[in-house]
Design brief:
With about 800 residues, the protein is of the alpha+beta class. The protein is globular and about 100 Å long.
Length: about 800
């Protein structure tokens, strides 16, 4: 068999260059440094107990008490060992992260373009655009690693589907199924959902074409094969999906039982306001072509000492001008805060618009339609008609927050259509008249817009945030001047890049420059366009040395004091950080707070309506603190019943102990039955939780009598603590109702009295409680969710079948080649 080594080199060489470019961008990795980010530190904290358990036992804990009093581990750190397909991740992500993520982005889009018939070196140029997407680097800089990993598999999914529709059904289905399985395993449902939207629009357009061409038989055959692969991909991840789906009802993505929330803000998932808190402004959409159209990221200007704001404050002798000048944000858009804009590239915008004019095939329609839909949905609260329509009627849409994230779709569709336009030009499929007309339209709409903004920056708005309207006129003028400068410099930059790319395309079409030269120059322009913008949001300063990394999680004075306490289980409230936005406390302690987008719904409601008001009381009491810790904690029912033993108020000082904590478990003398969740939550504020418990009437049948008298000799103590296994010793001469300072979750927690399974119920809105008969007993709680163990078997079976299918298809392909 003769091998065309030149052709092979053309396909392989780009892969080598992807590796070189990735490690060039993340060059600190070669020095042994590692990335530091908020969510990376947060992950270290939230997963510490789970990872320690895994290392010690070789098993999964499935539950952790380190955050928010306790929650399932499904969305934190889990090894779903039944999924054999997931092991392929180790091959695809070989090397150091995040460089391996960047390589994955490059390779996946490269593969997609090759499947769509694009030549290797043009595919290489297109892959650079996708891999160097600025929004990806914003996500990496924030530590959103599950998002960026998921995005690495989206082009592979599309490549498999397109290959299947191009008469390679089995191979396409296998590629799609494998990529989908790895995507689901990456565990970011929101990104997977957006992929589904792309595929849905793709399918509708292809169905319409099949109807027109009377080719429905072939269409449905392809759909059937793809469906089988998708079922196997889902099956391989069944354990993860089933446990997540089960937990969904009890998480903040579930439906609240509270009726006090305004009906117009309610959905079947997250509250409407919460979903649309981050919404892209209509005018902000122009950041797709000019990154600083709204000032970039929130926070001070990069070179704030060179700004007019700094100079005028210094000139006028403003006290603390150094700090105050840094409080003027370069970003002036409608979002509360942002880490960076969605910028697809000025040159990509030009090629995308060119594609809308040039391409006549179905690719234009599905890529154009999903791009437009994504942009409109990103407007969120600024385009309520469409947003509310999707929130109320589109399945699962109300489970996700931050509607701006849907713009990841345009990072796929816009460069894809743009490169397909270049492909058509290169192949000579475009008539001269059509090319010239489309060329000038695209150049006028993109380059012309950039030039107009350069000359008339006022088109972008007034350059002021709402709260700055009351600033002195001289300060407003300075801020406006600084923001205009950012806008105009980027607008000029975008115009220059568009003009350069347009010239290349013109020269190539009219054969003034060989395409062999156009492709590398086009790739170079893409890098010149994207690389500097990416460095604004993720540069070498984000990396730290191994020595500094070790000190990131060093215990403070307060931590060391608490770590000396050998009591089996208690909780800590850290007021030196934002309790609900930080999980580093969980690295050392069981925390009242934490940071997670899918915390348990009832605990989140407890935070909003009970715990947060208690934190305000603590702050007020600290002002008149007399040295008696009891004066701080008296009447703080939620914190006391959650067994909050210490408050960290200063990391470098000893923590404040809580003498009023109720411990791991206690007996109550009376029960207060309530009609609904609203009454239960309100009653917690008014009871004495040491003596009385609040219980929803639905659990009344589990309790034989309403009143109990704690025995004078009655005791209950925690003898064993593991995250998923707690053992108590109980002794009393009368029946008791025991309240446990543990979070109630009915889908997995099982309780045994002397090895005999019994029932427990929810009390005080979030805690566990149960009836215990008189005598001496061992009470044991075990977390053993059937969904996980049954799902594990299904995953193992499905992934085994899928791997056999993959091997079978590969064998068929090899035989065909022979």
């Amino acid at each position: 068999m003769n091998i065309n080594w030149k052709s092979v080199l053309n396909y392989v060489m780009p892969l080598f260059l992807f590796v070189v470019i990735a490690y060039a961008y993340f060059s600190p990795l070669m020095e042994g440094k590692s990335l530091t980010a908020h969510d990376i530190s947060t992950y270290k904290g939230m997963s510490k107990e789970l990872i320690d358990y895994r290392n010690e036992t070789g098993k999964e804990a499935l539950w952790t008490n380190s955050m928010f009093g306790g929650m399932p581990a499904y969305m934190i750190s889990m090894g779903f060992t039944g999924n054999l397909v997931s092991k392929i991740n180790k091959v695809l992500l070989v090397g150091k992260r995040p460089a391996s993520y960047l390589i994955l982005w490059f390779v996946s889009f490269y593969a997609l373009l090759l499947v769509m018939g694009v030549s290797p070196w043009l595919s290489f140029a297109g892959a650079l655009v996708y891999g160097l997407t600025s929004n990806f680097f914003v996500l990496v800089g924030a530590g959103h690693m599950t998002k960026v990993l998921t995005l690495g598999y989206v082009p592979f999914v599309l490549a498999g589907i397109i290959l299947a529709f191009r008469q390679r059904r089995l191979m396409g289905a296998v590629i799609m199924g494998l990529a989908l399985s790895l995507m689901i395993n990456a565990n970011h449902p929101q990104m997977t959902f957006y992929t589904f939207l792309i595929v849905l629009v793709f399918g509708v357009v292809y169905l319409i074409e099949a109807i027109k061409k009377k080719a429905l038989s072939g269409f449905f055959k392809t759909i059937g094969v793809l469906a089988i692969a998708a079922v196997l991909a889902v099956g391989a991840n069944f354990s993860r999906l089933y446990t997540t789906f089960e937990y969904l009802k009890y998480s903040t993505r579930g439906k609240t039982e509270l009726t006090s929330i305004p009906s117009e803000n309610k959905t079947g998932g997250l509250n409407r306001d919460y979903i649309t808190d981050w919404s892209y402004g209509l005018g902000e959409t122009f950041t797709l072509i000019i990154p600083n159209y709204r000032g970039g990221k929130s926070g001070s200007f990069d070179n704030y000492r060179q700004t007019e704001t700094y100079k005028v404050m210094k000139q006028k002798g403003v006290e603390g001008y150094e700090q105050k000048s840094q409080q003027i944000s370069s970003y002036w858009g409608p979002q509360m805060v942002t880490s960076g804009p969605t910028y697809v590239g000025a040159l990509v915008c030009f090629l995308f618009v060119l594609g809308l004019f040039l391409i006549k095939t179905k690719e234009k329609w599905w890529l154009g339609a999903i791009t437009l839909l994504a942009i409109m949905l990103s407007w969120g609260k600024f385009f309520p008609f469409l947003t509310d329509l999707f929130i109320d009627y589109f399945p699962f849409y109300n489970k996700f927050r931050d509607v701006t994230m849907i713009l990841i779709i345009v990072h796929i569709t816009m460069p894809l259509l743009g490169i397909l336009a270049v492909k058509e030009v290169v192949k000579g499929n475009i008539q001269k008249k059509d090319f010239i007309k489309s060329f000038w339209w695209a150049l006028g709409l993109t380059g012309g817009f950039s030039l107009i903004v350069t000359l008339m920056p006022g088109l972008a708005g007034d350059f002021l945030l709402d709260h700055e309207v009351g600033y002195p006129e001289w300060l407003q003028n300075a801020a406006i001047a600084d923001r205009k400068s950012l806008l105009t410099s980027d607008a000029i930059r975008s115009f220059a890049l568009i003009a350069a790319g347009a010239v290349l395309l013109w020269l190539g079409y009219f054969k003034k420059l060989k395409w062999n030269y156009v492709f590398p120059l086009l790739a170079l322009l893409f890098v010149i366009d994207m690389w500097p913008v990416d460095k604004r949001y993720l540069n070498n300063d984000k990396f730290i040395s191994p020595r500094k990394e070790k000190t990131e999680m060093e215990p403070s004075v307060a931590d060391k004091f608490i770590l000396n306490d050998k009591e089996l289980d208690f909780r800590v409230l850290n007021l030196s950080v934002s309790p609900w936005m930080d999980a580093t406390t969980s690295y050392f302690h069981k925390s009242i707070g934490g940071y997670h987008g899918a915390k348990m719904l009832r605990y989140n409601e407890m935070i909003s309506y009970v715990i947060s008001p208690e934190l305000q009381k603590i702050q007020e009491r600290f002002r008149s603190f007399n040295g008696d810790p009891a004066s701080i904690f008296v009447g703080l029912n939620a914190l006391n019943m959650l067994n909050t033993k210490y408050i960290i108020y200063n990391p470098q000082a000893q923590p404040l102990p809580n003498p009023l904590k109720l411990g791991n478990a206690w007996c109550v003398s009376s029960l207060r039955f309530v009609e609904n969740a609203d009454e239960e939550l309100e009653a917690i504020k008014h009871i004495d939780p040491k003596k009385e418990a609040v219980v929803d009437k639905r659990f009344k049948e589990m309790i034989s009598t309403d009143n109990y008298k704690p025995s004078a000799l009655g005791t209950i103590r925690l003898n064993k603590y593991v995250a998923n296994n707690l053992v108590y010793q109980f002794e009393a001469d009368e029946d008791q109702v025991v309240v446990f300072s543990e979070i109630y979750y009915p889908k997995g927690w099982k309780v045994y009295i002397d090895d005999k399974e019994t029932e427990h119920f929810c009390a005080n809105y979030v805690l566990r409680a149960m009836h215990v008969p008189a005598g001496k007993h061992t009470i044991e709680f075990k977390f053993h969710p059937d969904s996980y163990y049954m799902g594990k078997n299904v995953s193992y079976a499905a992934s085994t079948v899928f791997i056999l299918l993959i091997l079978g298809v590969i064998l068929m392909e090899v035989r065909k080649k022979k």
